[in-house]
Amino acid sequence: MFRTSICRILGIKYPILQGGMAWVATAELAAAVSNAGGLGIIGAGNAPGDYVRSEIRKAKKLTDKPFGVNIMLLSPFVDEVTDAAYEERVPVITTGAGNPGKYIERFKKIRTKIIPVVPAVALAKKMEQEGVDAVIAEGTESGGHIGELTTMALVPQVVDAVKIPVIAAGGIADGRGLVSALALGAQGVQMGTIFVCASECTAHDNYKKAIIKAGDRGTVVTGKVTGHPVRIIKNKLAREFDKLEKVSASVEEFEKLGSGRLRAAVVDGDADYGSVMAGQIAGLVKEIKPAKNIIEDIINEANEIMREIKTLSKEE
Fold first, then answer.
1. What is the pLDDT of residues 63-122, one digit of tens each?
2. What are the CA-CA distances from residue 218 to residues 203, 230, 232, 271, 277 (Å)?
3. Which pTM value belongs to this model?
4. Rounded to whole angstroms, how far apart are CA atoms 314 and 8?
5. What contacts 4, CB < 8 A, 6 or more positions away?
6. Angle, CA of 31, 55 and 13, to the nearest 5°
């Protein structure tokens, strides 16, 4: 029932992609998601090429299924990360924070699929013109770096604007979200926050617990003045960012405060002054469980919803 065009393009069982979260999306998590029928993605973030290459090789030992690498185009190591992904012949590349145009032709030579994250219709159309295989339309509900449009508003407009498959992201963590995204015209979903709480995810337990404890208003957008706003769990760091906002602090002050805070949260477990990136969907995440169980629960719930819809249609 849920085998869409993106499943055929990527060679996966279910139309579910795991977000390429920096420091969080390691080979262990990516392999677990791929083994469960989705597409696991290694997050390169600002890591150097050698680190990303080692994660790719680790993932190859953990799964024989397709997986991807997310390349952050603003990274100072973007060229060496791209080289590593190309030389290791990674099946899928997702990109963020920029235009991957200069790398598309090279990856097409080895049949790697290119799927950029887009926050608006204009960029989606440009990416289609440059020859990408699909786009991830990510709404402001997502964790980490965000755009302005909501997923509900963004996805159908991108679907109407391009002919390539669209993957919905932002505010999706269960079967209801999957069915809703498909109803909006998407061919799949990308989810991040829910997979932080996969048992295979190597993120610190404090990071996971902060997500599980969060309620519906548990996140806040920080660093708006920098032009690169970030959604995180409300904590002491968020309050420090709020203080800077109120005194109209400089971009440099924001960057200084935010430097190294993601690693502090993910690796060191600093849930107070670390940047605990998570989406607004955090309030729906209630437990830590294997990636396989996460995906199976989503698909089972989605199937049940579809059966209910069919039943209602027959009754009418």
1. 999 999 999 988 899 999 999 999 999 999 999 888 888 899 899 999 999 999 999 999
2. 19, 14, 9, 13, 11
3. 0.91
4. 31
5. 15, 165, 182, 187, 188
6. 25
CA angle 178, 181, 184 (to 5 degrees): 150
Which residue in the block uniquely carries the two structure tokens 């107070």?
272
Phi, psi dihedrals of residue 208, rounded to the nearest 5°? -65, -40
Amino acid at 202: T
280 within 8 A of 216, measured Cβ to Cβ: yes
Whether residue 68 contacts residue 92, with contact meaning beta carbons closer than 8 Å, is answered with: yes
Question: What is each CA distance from 290 to 151, 226, 295, in whole angstroms?
Answer: 26, 37, 9
Query: In whole angstroms, what is the distance from residue 291 CA to residue 113 CA?
Result: 23
